[in-house]
Design brief:
Chain lengths: 517, 242
Amino acid sequence: MDVRSQIAMVFHLDKCIGCHTCSIACKNIWTDRKGAEYMWWNNVETKPGTGYPTKWEDQDIYKGGWKKNGKEKISLRGSGKYKGLLNIFHNPHLPVLDDYYEPWTYKYLDLIESPAGDDQPTARPVSLVTGKPLDIKSGPNWDDDLSGTPEYARRDPNLENLSKAEQEAMFQLEKMAMFYLPRICNHCLNPACVASCPSGAIYKRGEDGVVLINQKVCRAWRMCVTACPYKKSYYNWNTGKSEKCILCYPRLEAGHAPACMHSCVGRIRYLGVLLYDADKIEEAASVSDEELIDSQLDLILDPFDEEVIRNAKENGVADSTIKAAQTSPVYKFVKEWGLALPLHAEYRTLPMLFYVPPMLPVMASLSTTDDSGQAVKLDPIAKFWDKNHRYDTTSKTIMQTVEQARFPVKYMANLFGTGNEEKLIEVLKKQLAVRVHRRHVTVGDVDAGLTNDTLNEVKLTAEIADDIYRLTSLAKFDDRFNIPPAHREQAIEMLENAGDTKGSTGFGFKETPQRGL
Amino acid sequence: MTPFNVIFFIALPYAALLMFFVGTIYRYKATKFKFSSLSSQFLETRKLYWGSVPFHWGILFLFFGHLIAFLFPSSILAWNQQPVRLIILEVSAFVGGVVTLLGLINLFYRRLTDARLRKVTSLIDILLEALLITEIFLGLWVAFGYRWGSSWFATVLSPYLKSIFTFSPNIDAVVMLPFIIQLHIILAFVIFLIIPFTRLVHVLVYPLSYLWRPYQKVIWNWDRKQIRSTQTKWTIHKPRNN
Ligand code: SF4
Ligand code: SF4
């Protein structure tokens, strides 16, 4: 057993309001530079939709992630030792600037400086690459909130195995639903970006599992951009180096939450330590598609287990980190409660960002009722649904509606369940049970028997349901982010020794003032 | 031994060698961030294919062809003893040259005409590409105009280059060569000389080691087996594993 610690995350999708605050926080800190303008280390996309870069999930185009060959082995889909080195002169699967968008700004000064004339001056858009006026064809979140549905939402790669009828049903105006999917680098346990880098510039930090690119070793071979199935490694066209989310490691080391998480308005984000068994990584990534999620979750170890703790200590994991693993909100969501699932586990990178799938379409399903009483109350010119249909939000029938949700479970399963609907239904039912239970506690219009039945069906107790409710809805900052100290007394920024550098450099120094020959 | 000959066939190669080693090593140590192939595929990919692929494979072929002729002249001469084999060698080398040249011209044209690429093109890039085009063109001229270069390279140039590397320069033979061939040689030295100042440094860091390293890479900032041990001595030095 090779016990290591990993900073892992949970995003609770039901709580995301799609405000993009996270993206802006990240952009302002890290990617507001020449060559990085187009990068969104954190982006929030509307689902269904084609995402960013467009159609990133379609691995027939981008060839990201690992694929399973035959019985045992997995290999990188579009790169790797031989393919990578052969394609080094021209990488046929590289997403190019237009697959993201051409970044631009406006010539604001023209509004003030233009000479007086008959026409109102305008601020023309100019490309941040060429500096030339630009005809904007797409931009970040071009398909936000389902805009341009025929072009974007309908081409979502996750719709592929849905039948025509199912797809049509999804896009009926009255039934259309959507949710937001915030994405950052998953800091995977089996990162394809690391494996694909010919220079060996990308590495995973042993201490906390953050995946980083050494900017001094990257040589612009661009293989990581192809290999990352989530397209979370970006090529900086100006510096000629690839860059990616660094999980705000300077903040982490100082005990702060990453900027995107700190600023999250919906408070959807949780961050904490998981202990895992590094010996089993390859094995876990090589099982069949159906077993992938379970095998990934099996990697995560019980932080209370004596054996695990002993092994962790032998491996240099600090006590504070073990403690953090025991109180980790991520461990609760992922392992204890089984509420959070990895996104596209079938890419086999073992992502360490987990999502609680959204339930919104379940709560309100269209049902036939006699609604005449309701209609009377309505203003005659107000629009309302067909008299005999209305949104059914009664808790009595809720449990039956999970499978027949407005948002097909099949679609969700393509995102979070490697296509396995059972997995999704299980998670959604658990969430529903918590809601039924809370409704019983707070509103009281659900009877105790039904509440017990629903809880029993998903093997939850009232106490656990309350815990889930608390961490989901009431959690304070410190409950959501449980960040162990990086033990800076051992090293500044974990890379340099405090004794070597303390007080030695400052403004104007390029070279460490070291004793001469 | 005119001054011309001394400058271009003795001074220049040594200047080039010195500059190459000192310059690249210094740059690698001091400005490692700038060691990059500076790929522009992200900004333009379609035209790049028709330039980069033929150019790179072609130049590799030509480079190793020259290298083999330099290192093993006798084996080249032995191979060339049969006219058919000589012709096969010469024709494939010539075709390789043409492919390289076409690729490079494509690259040059692409770089000059694409608005996005202009933004990532420096003066030295243009100079380098112009130099390479001239050099390859001259090479083709030599191959065509002064037939069976593979043979006379082995008998005339290999000894000359060897004399340079053994620090006993002997230029008796080179000075007799036609001017076009001399120009080809001189330009080659110039290109070597400017390598440290160009993106050509990426050749030196071609990631062959990828072939034998394990796929995954984990870096520990401290020795994890020792950090919790009370036996470990306190040290003020950086851990050695990064
Ligand atoms: S999400 Fe992509 S960039 Fe991040 S660790 Fe995984 S493979 Fe690498
Ligand atoms: S800040 Fe939070 S709520 Fe807002 S879009 Fe980002 S993840 Fe969603």
